[in-house]
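Q: Structure tokens for this one, please.
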Amino acid sequence: MIEQERNVLNGAFAVAISDFLGNFELIKWFAICGIILVFCDLRFGVLAAKKRGENIRKSRAIRRTINKIVDYICWILLSIAIDHTFGLSLHIPLIPVFVMLVIYGIEI
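A: Here is the predicted structure, written as tokens:
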């Protein structure tokens, strides 16, 4: 009985996440762009702190970098969900592109 419930839960999870995995090609490029922007932000932040003579704490820099990566991944998934809800079937990711441009513009 427990094994059958586990199989049902695994199947439901697979169905729920399959839509996102089906669009992994689109998500991949947004994620790569976001990660590059986060590491650029880290690099420029460290340089600015050195120029101001501030103490650089690696643990805080790592924590903030990981937090920004998670934030970007959440925004990417949200933009894909918005595209699936309101987007047209043109095979052009217009809504995610606009959402990500707005989010990157706000974050930078």
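A few notes: The first helix runs from residue 2 to 22. DSSP finds four helices and no strands in the chain.
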